[in-house]
Records
---
Amino acid sequence: MDITKSLLDRIAKAGQDHEHKREAGNDAGTLRRARNRKRLLVVAIVAIAIAPFFPFVDDYWIDIGFYFGIYTLLGLSLNIVLGEVGLFDLGHMGFYAIGAYTTAILNTALHIPIMVLLPISAVAAGLFAWIVTAPVIHLKGDYLCIVTIGIGEIVRLTMINNPFGLTGGPNGINGIDSPMIFVPIISSRQFYYFVWALIAIVIFGLVRLQRSRIGRAWNYIREDETAAEALGVDVRHYKLAAFVLGAAIAGLAGNIYASKQMSISPESFTFMESSLLFCIVLLGGLGSIPGTVLGALAITIFPEIFRALAQYRLMFFGLALLIMMVFKPAGLMPRLRESGEELRSTLSKRRRGKKATLGDERHEVPQEHQAPSLLGDALLELKNVRLSFGGVTAVAGFDATVEAGKITALIGPNGAGKTTLFNLITGIYKPETGTILFKGKNIAGLPPHVIAAQGIARTFQNIRIFPSLTCLENVLCGQHCRGRAEFTGSLFHVPSQCEEEKTMLDFSLRCLERVGLGDSMDNLAASLPYGKRRSLEIARALALCPDLLVLDEPSSGLNDVETEELAGLLLSLLHEGLSILLIEHDMHLVDMVSDHVIVMQSGRIIAEGTMRDMRKNPLVIEAYLGTEED
Amino acid sequence: MAKHRNSGWWIALAACCVVSVCALLVGASTPATTIKIALQAPITGDYAYEGQMAKQSVEVAAELINKAGGVLGKKIEIVVIDDASNPKDSALAAQKAVSQKVVAVIGSYGSSVTEPAADIYERNKLVSVGYGCTAVRLTMDKERKYFFRTCGRDDAQGLFFGKYAVETMGAKRIAIMHDNSTFAKGVADEAKKALEPYIAAGKTQIVYFDAITPKEKDFSAVVTKLRETKPDVWYFTGYYPEAGLLIRQARDAGLSCPFVGGNAAINNDFVKIAGLDVAKGAMMTQEPLVTDVTTDIAKQFKSLYMEKYKELPSSPWPVYAADALYAIAGAITKAGKTDSAAIADALRTKMAGVQGVTGPILFTERGDRKDVPYKMYVVDSQGALKVKQ
């Protein structure tokens, strides 16, 4: 396992433990901590607003407040990439540098006003991020981390090497103007309010994103990339979007920094600074906005307090960080997941006086199904599908048909290639040859999220839920690809986005109720017992409104009662018109539900028909079932 | 359970208390029985070594001045502020110096670190005297009323070379070579400027003035062209990798005139690239180490420094920090008051007779030091640099 992944897991684990301790299943606690946070927010806003007026706060401390603001902005920008999506970006200062240098160069050479350059710097940094990360975004964990270190260093060294005489080499650029907002912003106090006003706007936007399908998609990717993709999240798109948005906010910070300093040089954008940003996010809590602010506070205030200790100050600083990480491994203020009610109320408060309760209104979910498939029609057809890993042929020229409105079971001994076949159908692997027709269209080789959006939802053999999200949020993942709202819609809460979110919430809740998890909607998925996690995974798949449900060993680990319930659920889904394909080892379950059985061995079909036929088939008995006496 | 839930509150509260107490401590000011002068230096960070030496040098100088009766009857008190050799910390350090109501500031070391600080001092009308910041633009790009420096500008050694080549070496035909970098070209231009009066008087001529391309390995075309001009002395203002190759290839081609490098051209790597046999005798224009300075103040300074710290500063720059303190102290004495405008004015116009560790300290109208002391160093037979006698 790579370092980045294990670090993420550790933090997530710590966060869940923390939640467990707090929750203990009572609503009062949940309410209380939400109220505490709210109170803290008010205190923080007041403190920041009046801080410069305390008698003992001179320009020096106001400037520290300003740099606290800059680091907050940078922390928030890295938090999108690292905290929300879990991508280890150790070159974030590169984007900050691009913003600062864009401002410096355009201002000193062309005399464009700083305030005009503010959005331009953000766009330049975002564009740069898109250009440099698009080719490497598919890299996972440690590899991406190393590439980002490279990106940060390349930016800094380019600045030092003074290309075309633009960057002024190691000495940098000086003589940058001050921003003008009706009056010129010059004094420490003006800059302080300027940066914090900008932070307020950024936080407002980020909170809205967190509570939209975009923010959730980021979290799904962090929690489990494969599952997110199989459930219809365009992973590449959202990762890139996170990088671009993060870089753009860093670019904003770069603009303000350049105009405050009036001169910039490559020394401000070192690897050390990037790792400091990393500390801010880890210290505060991954994906937590208040945590990031607190982390930035710690990072800027600690070294100032210890400055009197001269050369020992960095040691004390390190020690302080260490102590914090030991006692609060999930961060100073870990992200609290919103309850369904909270998600709902943020949407309706503005437009209606009364708070609508979640599930009150039953919205009709826009069904993506094309014409309802007729019973017995071929829904999924596999023709000559083949895939081998090195010399091992996992699926060898496979031909099969899954009929609409039926439950088809795929059985066979371990290593027969069943899960590989599932991965081919859902797009995780691309077949070497052959076609996979779904509703008459070839889906072979399409990316998983596209296949999911066409109506194939799956579960996994080893459960892949999103542990540190609530059950409701888990299920909302299925609805993700049914939504349309993008960044602007989510930021401005346009009516269509609000409607869509509400529809998603209601439908997801119904899916949860469907599998008997309606009461646990606000609990973290990690707190569910094993059997319920299976149900949650099914609910998540149902939320996609699929035509075909692909279940990989849904009964494994379930006791007899739970298996009976599962069979009941599957049959009732069948009656609602869903088609189901499942891998199963529990012959009892297969007996109960399946209309058609396909037996697979060494990547080939050795027999198919009803379960009763299979029991008599000598090939099947030899390969898999064994004799009756066994 | 309840305790746990509130821990966030307690941490926030505790942090607030700590911050307030610290702010109070910092904000409290003592009545002015001393003259407070700040030293902004890289006490931590990449150049901590330089910063520490600067701190020691300034403290030694302060002790010497205080022993001799102080300034305007008051003792000098040094306030050390760390800029960690980082532009952001430098701006904070400057703001701190301003808040602490010091009379003047010594600092700082690096040019890009000094830049933001100088802007803040300028805005707050506080005199600052740089000691290791040699970039030309610090004094030439902006009108700064309150910024001075005791170290030479990057190109000041060119001036020294011009004088030295004609008056000491008696060179009639001078070749000057640079590499088009801002630094090297600045030095070369300044050398050319220094030679102009001698040329007008018919004492010498420039037979070669051109740039090479950095990072090249084969300079034979350049060397051939240079040889044809038959120079008496050859001044190369670029960096050591090219310098080493150039001298090697020139000697192979039979060019035997003395080689003088700028202070970026000669170091241990230069000797390695050129080979000791070739490098021996190569000269360099450089700021003197305190070991090689022989003024009266330097003698006192060295003996007290040795007494306190057992070994002399190993780089030229910390001594300029001590010089900056002598300059500020001298200017305050001459002005008779600690008002910033008066100090700045005194630094520009009334410094006659003020001596520092490296000699007399006078400033130009733009705040650069006049007649910066340079020395000609030479590579000896062991490959070490020694002052040329």
---
Amino acid sequence: MNLLELRDLRKLFPVRDALGRHRGAVRAVDGVSLSVAQGEVLAIVGESGCGKSTLGRLALRMIEPDAGEVRFGGEDLRALSPAALRARRRDMQLIFQDPFASLDPRMTVEAAIAEPLRLHGVVPRGQESAKVAEWLERVGLRADHARRWPHEFSGGQRQRIAIARALASGPKLVIGDEPVSALDVSIQAQVVNLLQDLIRDLGLTFVLISHDLAVVRHIADRVAVMYLGRIVELGETEQVFSRPRHPYTRALLAAVPGQGAKAPPLAGDVPSPMAPPSGCRFHTRCGHAVAMCREVDPVLPSEAHAAACHLAAELPPAIAPHETETGGERLRRLQAFFTQGTAA
Amino acid sequence: MSGSDAPSAEGRAQGTEPLNRPRQVPPESPFRRALRQFFRHPLPVFGLVVVTAFVLAAVFAPLLAPFDPLQTSWTLVRKAPSAAHWFGTDENGRDVLARVIYGARASLMAGVVAVSLAAMIGVPLGLLAGLSGGWAETIIGRVADAMLAVPFLILAIALAAFLGPALENAMLAIAITASPVFVRLSRGMALEAKSTDWAEAARAMGNPPWRLALVHVLPNIIPPLMVQATLSIAEAIIAEASLSFLGLGQQPPNPSWGSMLNSAQRFLTQAPWMAIYPGVAIFLVVLAFNLVGDGLRDALDPRSQRR
């Protein structure tokens, strides 16, 4: 069963000049349909500015879509009253990128983690402390950290606190918006492992928004690749990584540093999302583009492993340069380093 | 690797993590940290001492004042400072020291009450404007800007004259005049806070708007509001003195520094002590509040924080 269903979501951000005149609109999310199954880990990847964070916010109705449908557990989130939506937030949570910004600086750790417990009446009044202690230990901190303030912790520890806060109300769906990208590389592997453990133990449905392909490959079941507000490729993680079908996905995978064979790197910059190219949005940077690509907008077929590309069937099989598992390698090295560090 | 042994590894990796320090370091709230900062600098502490002295004088005026401030005497008209009357006497033979001490009541009261009122009017409106956006923000913002365009004292005088001469009315006039500053300050900071990740996290958690405003945003904007309040008290004291000088504040015969200056101006050459002492009192208390305000600003500004 699908816990989250997005249908043809669209979000425009109007752009105004200094005098407040309308200068067009950034099409942050431009017709995205996506289903996330119960218990699934879905990754949304893409370059910065492709609309993946906006999509995450839309899925939680943190921002209002201009068009489209958001169904959470079969219920239309857009039809809920503000109060009903707030109550529903118990079941869907968000983890932020920057743990230095996402914790209220004037709240102790205990107050921060107890807040969702109180708001949603998760535990009887007066019993929040025990639950907070439980959560702190669950995310790898100590129970006596509860009395401390966010500024007393390192980035990795803060992110653990933010994770505990997000999970405290017992959500079914968690969206992680680049949950490890702001952390030191040496900390990333630990937090990724923590997330993975929690997802498994709690049976969470998790949407990981990330540009870090190593992390994505490590924990995601399925991957959606976004380019300029659209999903261009969608499929099982292993399928997408080993047999990428969309030229953009291939280029993205090839850009992972430190491998031998390389697909041709991407030329040029991402076109302005205020004026996306006609036809296939990727044709301006695609080495395979033909006349049709400039005129006809490809759709994402509803296959298990789909690519929104006219030539997907005709393109030569990917050289799959990343088959060396560069990304996985990096994570494994990090993990080895830390296992050693702990043992020492 | 399990999650539970991670912090030790993490601490090691970063070398000098705060948590690697000895455990006896107690958790320190942002407020206590600011307090510690404040007491590191001599000038704000001096300001605080002076403010405290004036507050004590106002509270314990009946015990401290050597004479009744209303007691007139035809034999003691405009006597220069002496052993009996340290600050001299005024045109009705009343003791200037006693009147300065009792005058502190009117000034400090006016300052504190007016600014508290101003904050109580301004901060909720500012929060509403900053957090709700839309028409509420437009209306509140425009009215506050319009009021700020009128010079502070002129507006206060106009309002006080409209309300009628009395200390209470002067305080109300000052409060209304001082409130737009609080509207603008809290609106700006609420706007800033609204766009932070922690505010978004609070919304994502299911906080209703009033709880976001009171539990999350308000505590985060209190420090700059405290600074503004302290500086506003200094302004309000000057305003009260000015209104009393014009006869719009404290009514005779009750003492107020402003009205004392008013009666002293006719005798500036013959009895300068009548003007000097209340003048010095105004100067000192305003300076002290400003020093405290500046000290608070330095202590609460995260950019100036050095441990």
